[in-house]
Amino acid sequence: KAGVTQTPRYLIKTRGQQVTLSCSPISGHRSVSWYQQTPGQGLQFLFEYFSETQRNKGNFPGRFSGRQFSNSRSEMNVSTLELGDSALYLCASSLTGGAGNTIYFGEGSWLTVV
Amino acid sequence: KQEVTQIPAALSVPEGENLVLNCSFTDSAIYNLQWFRQDPGKGLTSLLLIQSSQREQTSGRLNASLDKSSGRSTLYIAASQPGDSATYLCAVTQGGSEKLVFGKGTKLTVNP
Q1: Integer-rounded Cα radius of gyration of chain B
Q2: Max Cα–Cα distance, chain A, nearest Å
Q3: Hey, which end of chain A has fewer CB within 10 Å, N or C?
Q4: With an 8 Å Cβ cutoff, is A58 touching chain B?
Q5: A42 interfacial to chain B (CB closer than 8 Å)
Q6: One pLDDT digit (tens) per residue for chain A, 114 residues
Q7: Which residues of A touch B89 (CB under 8 A)?
Q8: Are residues A66 and A47 in contact, defined by beta-carbon separation less than 8 angstroms?
Q9: β pairing state of A31-38 and A19-24
Q10: Residue A96: left (phi > 0), alpha (psi -120 to 50), or beta?
């Protein structure tokens, strides 16, 4: 079966612009989480969605937002981009979320802010 | 606040060697611990998931152990191969959340 699909894979944006990243979870999975990966900070949790509801949120400014649709697909948006937002953004899905589930990651979206 | 540490940050070994990667966490109240592999420029691949009630899990040449009380986990790789070269990350979950707290990873290089 298809894995977690993220689009776009690569993008370059200018400071001050906004960006929307998309994630399609594995078929049947209802939980989607987002992570930011940078060389300095490593992998950091952004947010988790289950059945269109945000269940958990990491320590990121309000410029970072997300949503989940009824088909479990998810999007995250970053407004007023800063150079420090350059990172690999990873989406992960699992059947129901919560502890005990194996979590599957997509290939990520590489964002460069110039 | 949960913190996860992985030592060493990088490891280089000759092909065929058995090796151990270490992971420690500060808060022993975890639900589970998961080991991932990340190839350069790629996403994460789940290797092993250990529930908090378990002591170890095995998959092929990989064996992961968990000692919750001491806040430690190890990933044992037997008979390493060049294809094992990657960054290995461990992560823990707490409460009922799926939120993963990651270590910074160990970059493994297996030389032919």
Answers
A1: 13
A2: 40
A3: N
A4: yes
A5: yes
A6: 679 999 999 999 999 999 999 999 999 999 999 999 999 899 999 999 999 999 889 999 999 999 999 999 999 999 999 999 999 999 999 987 666 678 899 999 999 999
A7: 43
A8: yes
A9: unpaired
A10: alpha
Peptide bond between residue B8 and the one before it cis (omega within 30 degrees of 0): yes
- Express each pLDDT in B92-104 by its tens digit: 988 767 789 999 9
* A90 interfacial to chain B (CB closer than 8 Å): yes
A59 touches chain B (CB under 8 A): no
Residues of A in contact with B10 (CB under 8 A): none
The answer to whether the CB of A62 falls within 8 A of the CB of A75 is no
The minimal CB distance from A33 to the residues B41, B98, B105 is found for: B98
B contacts of A106 (beta carbons < 8 Å): 43
Helix boundaries (H) for chain A? none
Q: Enter the tokens of residue B48.
A: 């092993």
Asked if B98 and A97 come within 8 Å (Cβ–Cβ), the reply is yes
Cβ atoms A34, A66 nearer than 8 A: yes
